[in-house]
Specification:
Strand content: over 45%
Strand order of the largest sheet: 1-2-3-4-5-6-7-11-12-15-16-17-18-19-20-21
Number of helices: 2
Distance between the termini: 72 Å
Mean pLDDT: 84
Largest sheet: 16 strands, antiparallel, barrel
Low-confidence stretches: 1-10, 12-22, 96-110
Shape: elongated
Helix content: 10-25%
Radius of gyration: 41 Å
Structural class: mainly beta
Number of strands: 21
């Protein structure tokens, strides 16, 4: 900037000197030349200032934008991710009389003589894979891990299946076979976890529902074959497991059980369906002799694993033809012939406009019971401490509140049950007792 001003002054001085030395006729010409020089110098000055302010930084290597992460599938079929949240707020009296349908989602549940107030539940995640060919053949899998509120992780289903659509199918893994004792929109009676373990608690009544060979056990797996033919459906499920897991604490009729080998349940089902009506008959039996039992005072082995059950169910599902005002009704019955015991269960339930009401009757006839080894702590509360006949009556109900906060995936269930026991032991006086409870269940699907 200073150099430019100096040049202008020198030019002006030089021009002035020329004006003095030249005639007046050249003054106008010299002024025009001086003005042109000044304008040229101003343009150079502006260009220099602009060049000095524009600084460009260049990288030695070209900078490329990062691509977003991708989820790459194998391309062998469809993948689905889903889940649900199921949390319960419970209030229940003594929990001992309904042993075959535990009232808590906590796997640490055990029968007892104390009132129960708690919050329990679990979050389930599901991953399904499925591939179907143009000719109707298909294959797939399903795995459903879940975590509960006590901080433990479990597994509902883990199954691989394949077959031909509307024809035949094979399943292998951990899952539940055909439900032969549906309880409709049940909230507080049916336990939603394992159906093949801890069904029988010694000293309490047994509500037999043809579930011993249905599956989803913690000590074995299923293999199922099924066939669909017009309105008919045929199913044969096999279950291999530790048979003593059926009993809480491995106790049965006052004896400590020893597991010698795994049981092998076979469970055939024949079902027929036409529109809203369906019916099914089934049986389940253990094929392995001397799978588990105990030794008597003389050291002789006593087999306790001989168990065969039969079942019949009928369903009218009016919601298929009338989603608004349809009625869903189930009529169920089951019978068990076991070592030293026979059990009969029958139930009816109906659902209409989100309101469900049901009744279950169970009759236990105990022929053998070893009172000498029975737990003394249970004698004050247990009902079955001697051979005899025992009846259990249960009324259960639930109501669905759908679309909470206008969310189609958020429901609330209100459930309650009441049961009473009539005991007629061969020795001692008749006894009666009752059980009851209520539940609020929050159900959220995603």
């Amino acid at each position: 900037m200073k150099l430019t001003k100096t040049v202008i002054l020198i030019s002006a001085f030089y021009s002035g000197a020329l004006f003095a030395a030249q005639p007046s006729t050249n003054v106008e010409e010299k002024l025009a030349q001086l003005e042109a020089q000044i304008q040229a110098l101003k343009q150079q000055q502006a260009a220099a200032a602009q060049a000095a302010s524009a600084v460009v930084v260049r990288s030695e290597e070209p900078v490329s934008k990062a691509e977003p992460p991708k989820l790459t599938l194998s391309g062998y079929g469809d993948i689905k991710f889903y889940g649900d949240v199921e949390f319960n707020m419970d209030a229940a009296s003594k929990t001992g009389s309904l042993t075959s349908v535990r009232q808590s989602a906590n796997s640490d549940w055990a029968p007892g003589d104390k009132e129960r107030w708690d919050i329990n539940g679990r979050i389930l995640l599901g991953f399904d894979g499925y591939r179907k060919m143009d000719n109707g053949n298909f294959a797939g899998f399903s795995v459903q891990p879940l975590g509960d509120l006590v901080g433990k992780m479990y597994l509902d289903d883990a199954v691989f299946f394949f077959g031909s659509e509307s024809d035949w199918e094979i399943k292998v893994g951990r899952f539940e076979a055909y439900d032969m004792f549906p309880l409709n929109q049940d909230t507080f009676v049916e336990y939603s976890g394992n159906t093949a373990d801890d069904l029988y608690s010694d000293g309490y009544g047994y509500i037999y529902m043809l579930k011993e060979g249905r599956g989803r056990t913690d000590s074995g797996g299923n293999f199922l074959m099924s066939k669909t033919l017009d309105n008919w459906y045929f199913e044969l499920n096999t279950l291999f497991k530790d048979g003593s897991d059926l009993y809480v604490d491995q106790r049965y009729h006052g004896a400590e059980l020893e597991n010698d080998k795994n049981v092998a349940y076979v469970r055939p089902v024949i079902s027929w369906q036409d529109g809203p009506f369906s019916t099914a008959v089934a049986m389940e039996t253990n094929l392995v002799n001397n799978a588990y039992g105990y030794r008597d005072d003389a050291g002789r082995w006593v087999d306790q694993s001989d168990r065969t059950g039969y079942g019949f169910t009928m369903t009218w599902d009016g919601l298929k033809t009338d989603p608004q005002d349809g009625v869903v009704m189930n009529l169920n019955t089951a019978y068990l012939d076991a070592t030293g015991e026979t059990d009969f269960t029958s139930g009816i339930n109906a659902l209409w406009h989100n309101f469900e009401l049901g009744y279950i009757y169970a009759h236990n006839e105990i022929d053998e019971f070893n009172t000498s080894t029975f737990d003394a702590e249970c004698e004050n509360d247990c009902w079955i401490t001697d051979p005899g006949e025992y009846d259990i009556h249960t009324i259960h109900t639930s109501y669905l509140i759908p679309n909470v906060m206008k969310m189609k995936n958020f429901n609330v269930y209100l459930g309650a049950y009441a049961s009473w026991v009539n005991a007629s032991p061969k020795e001692g006086d008749n006894k009666n007792d009752d059980r009851y409870g209520g539940r609020v269940r929050f159900k959220y699907y995603f």
